[in-house]
Design goal:
Helix content is 28%, strand content 22%. The chain is built from 21 helices and 28 strands. Strand 20 (502-506), helix 16 and strand 21 (534-537) form a beta-alpha-beta unit. It starts with a helix and ends with a helix.
């Protein structure tokens, strides 16, 4: 079935209410903390108060004597049991041909701590309060060392060395593009726009903090790990094959209901390994709940790039070349996908929507005494879009062009299009997105609104962002050649029951995306059922055959495509059964709307009849077919999908206080085929809130001298609130993806990718009359006010 046929099926494009919401809204959801096992103990981690220090000794005696304490484990115990460190899932090769520096990442610090919050010891007790109280009695003798938290300081001569394996703190130097050709292009350009900017560090802050339960079963010599995680099969693979050396079939990972992830719950964390290991060592199930303060310290952070970019143009504003240098902060250790974010997921998107013929990108990645940095909603794509869309708007202002005009002059118009940075876009209509965005945003009425703002003593600005992202990272063989240490396929199993209802087992994992509804719509559309007849099972390695989880907006395009492949097999077998029942050839049987019909006749049987016959095979071709109707498929995409769109933001700025208010925001996206518009709109809204939050409010800050996390709570880290936003205007353009059977492209990260540059371009447009030309995120009142005062000076 082709994408165009699929888009016309019943239930596709219907805004059905989410099936899963009833249990969430009535308190019937089951999160990791809701799980209570018999004889379960509780855990609390002793964490480093220093950004960088040697561990001279750890005295556990007083803590071990505290009430309720079952055991205390530290790095010496880990080493004694030969538990390996946490692995990095992506190998990057430096420009000199050498592999990246990959220092050990112990699950409990051994001899040295490298960031505030680093794991030093785990205290296990009968209750959480007893474990926490005992943790305060663990005496650690530290020898503090000088720390470095900023990439600009990490590369300075004489900077503190974080890992012996990387004596200059550099993990790798990586590049893509032809530097000599790009440099020659710049030498002959009529105009060059230059820009320096910082992409601010963020803390993910999902609604549900991380949690885990490790349980060892002596009877079967096996383990179960309950964990708030986005990809349980990957978690199990890393845990067994790389860290603990366990047979994979002896470990079951269950990710029940998960309250948000945003990338921060993709990874194998030290706590997950510690609980699994300790549950056998202490012969007790052990639970750990991360409190919000711990989350700020220990969850993988996002972004944190320092970049210089240059855009070469001819006299008419046509892009000729683009060159970028980025210093990326990886933190103290390499997280699971950290090395891919500033390289494969970032640099390959710097062509954007534009037919820039030459692009060269160079990335230096550095270790610092901060929490590890990894994928956060968008993962490299927001960093690329922010850099590109900021410099495009600046180029427009320098060339005397409007922000939309310079983009239109450079949009790609013919597809497929091979970019100079490896990717090939299969389809798109960037002009259509721009046109619709301009109309919905009422750009024509801007001058009138500016006059109204001026009358109130306010400045009004308009900002554009035309983004493109790459979703559904694939194919596996190409990704493997680029350094991926895992496959990037997905698995789907479709189990038809005798009564005609269906259970789907998917390797994708839902943590707020609405999979239980969207996937049910896909199956119901194909089989002629109602979505209520379809149940979706995910998040359990003991029930789902395999899977790579949910991240990178891959669920519907990769996970959904795997389910479609399984449905193809179901339909093919069901046609054979139906043909037998109707005494016809299966080649003459059509299937639509839940009915099998013989072409040119009035013969018909329903899907329900076929399902029952498959399990009660009295009138059945047993000599040709096995009974039952249950099929599994694996799907490995042939290419990325490429959602794209144009966002327009309009802000008011109070020059007296620096306060920025988002007055209007328009988002027009091309997601290809849309299964459930309501769910898609919700995903876009959530992404916009996170992206605008980064642009105006959020900033994870370490003290540059001490390495202490300054923004370690919601008192200091400003989260966006409902009253920070207007009502969003949403529009859609549809150019179906040509590389998957649904025509879908992915939608979960778009809002967070396209919105930050739109907001910042709007702020700078508003401040232009005052002479402000540059400003880094977040555009907080203090930063904006300071920029205004400096421009006046």
């Amino acid at each position: 079935m082709g994408a165009s046929d699929f888009a016309n099926l019943p239930h596709i494009g219907e805004s059905l209410r989410r099936k899963e919401d009833y249990r969430f809204l009535t308190g019937a959801g089951q999160y990791t903390d809701d799980i209570v096992l018999a004889n379960m103990a509780q855990c609390y981690f002793v964490r480093s108060p220093h950004a960088h220090a040697k561990i001279r000794s750890i005295d556990k005696s007083a803590a071990l004597a505290a009430p309720g304490v079952i055991g205390i484990l530290d790095g010496q115990d880990v080493a004694a049991d030969k538990i390996n460190g946490l692995p990095c899932g992506w190998l990057i090769t430096s420009t000199n041909g050498e592999p990246m520096k990959e220092p050990p990442h112990p699950i409990l610090a051994f001899e040295k701590v490298r960031y505030v919050g680093d794991h030093v010891a785990m205290v296990v007790a009968e209750t959480y309060e007893q474990a926490r109280n005992a943790a305060e009695l663990v005496v650690v003798d530290y020898e503090p060392l000088a720390a470095v938290v900023d990439v600009r300081d990490a590369q300075a001569p004489g900077a503190p060395v974080i890992h012996d394996i990387a004596s200059n703190n550099q993990c790798y130097k990586w590049a893509i593009g032809d530097k000599a050709t790009v440099d020659a292009t710049f030498a002959n350009a009529a105009h060059v726009t230059k820009l320096d900017l910082v992409n601010n560090r963020l803390a993910p802050n999902p609604m549900e903090p991380r949690a885990a339960i490790g349980h060892y079963n002596r009877a079967g010599d096996d383990y179960t790990l309950y964990v708030s995680n986005q990809n349980p099969h990957v978690e199990r693979l890393l845990l067994t094959a790389f860290v603990m050396g366990l047979p994979e079939h002896k470990v079951r990972v269950i990710a029940p209901d998960v309250g948000g992830g945003f990338g921060a719950k993709i990874y194998l964390y030290a706590e997950d390994v510690c609980l699994t290991w300790a549950s056998k060592k202490l012969n007790r199930p052990i639970k750990w709940n991360c409190d919000r303060s711990e989350a700020f310290l220990s969850d993988a952070h996002g972004r944190d790039h320092v970049s210089h970019a240059e855009l070469a143009m001819d006299k008419d504003g046509k892009f000729l070349g683009f060159r970028v240098h980025t210093d990326a902060n990886l933190g103290a250790y390499l997280s699971t996908f950290s090395t891919a974010v500033p390289t494969i997921l970032y640099a390959t998107l710097l062509a954007g929507q534009y037919k820039t013929p030459q692009v060269y990108v160079e990335v230096d990645a550095w270790f610092t005494n901060t929490a590890p940095v990894d994928a956060y909603r968008g993962a490299g794509r927001p960093e690329a879009t922010y850099l590109l869309e900021r410099i495009v708007s600046r180029a427009a202002w320098e060339m005397g062009l409007s922000q939309d005009e310079i983009r239109r002059r450079n949009f790609i118009t013919e597809f497929p299009y091979q970019t100079p940075v490896a990717l090939q876009y299969d389809t798109g209509d960037f002009h259509a997105c721009m046109k619709q965005a301009n109309e919905l945003a009422d750009v024509a009425g801007l001058e009138q609104r500016k006059a109204q703002s001026k009358a109130k003593g306010l400045l009004r600005g308009l900002g554009y962002s035309s983004y493109i992202e790459a979703c559904g990272l694939a194919p596996s063989n190409v990704a493997g050649a680029l350094g991926a240490r895992a496959g990037l396929f997905e698995c789907g199993e479709v189990r038809v029951h005798p009564t005609g209802s269906v259970t789907v087992f998917t390797g994708s994992h839902s943590h707020g995306q609405g999979h239980e509804t969207t996937f049910a719509q896909v199956v119901a559309a194909r089989l002629g059922l109602s979505p209520e007849q379809v149940d979706i099972v995910h998040g359990d390695t003991g029930r789902v055959p395999f899977g790579m989880g949910t991240y990178g907006s891959r669920s519907i395009s990769v996970g959904g495509a795997a389910i479609m492949r399984a449905l193809d097999k179901i339909e093919a077998k069901a046609k054979k059964i139906a043909a037998h029942l109707m005494e016809a050839s299966d080649a003459d049987v059509d299937f639509a709307g839940g009915e099998f019909k013989v072409k040119g006749t009035d013969k018909m049987v329903t899907f329900g009849q076929v399902a029952l016959t498959a399990y009660v095979p009295h009138n059945y071709p047993l000599d040709k077919l096995e009974p039952g109707l249950n099929e599994t498929a694996f799907y490995d995409p042939t290419n990325f999908t490429f959602p794209a769109g144009t966002y327009i933001c309009e802000v008011e700025v109070d020059p007296a206080t620096g306060q920025v208010r988002v007055d209007r925001f328009t988002a027009v996206d091309d997601f290809g085929t849309i299964i459930n518009p309501m769910i898609v709109e919700g995903q876009v809204h959530g992404g916009l809130v996170q992206g605008i939050g980064q642009a105006l409010l959020e900033h994870c800050v370490y003290d540059r001298e001490t390495g202490q996390l300054v923004t370690g709570s919601f008192m200091d880290y400003a989260m966006p609130r409902a009253d920070d936003f207007p009502s969003f205007t949403i529009g859609h353009v549809c150019t179906p993806c040509t590389t998957n059977p649904l025509g879908t492209k992915g939608c979960g990260e778009a809002g967070a990718i396209g919105s930050p540059p739109a907001v910042m371009n709007a702020v700078l447009d508003a401040l232009a009359p005052l002479g402000v030309k540059d400003l880094d995120m977040p555009a907080s009142p203090n930063r904006v006010w300071t920029a205004i005062q400096q421009a006046k000076a």
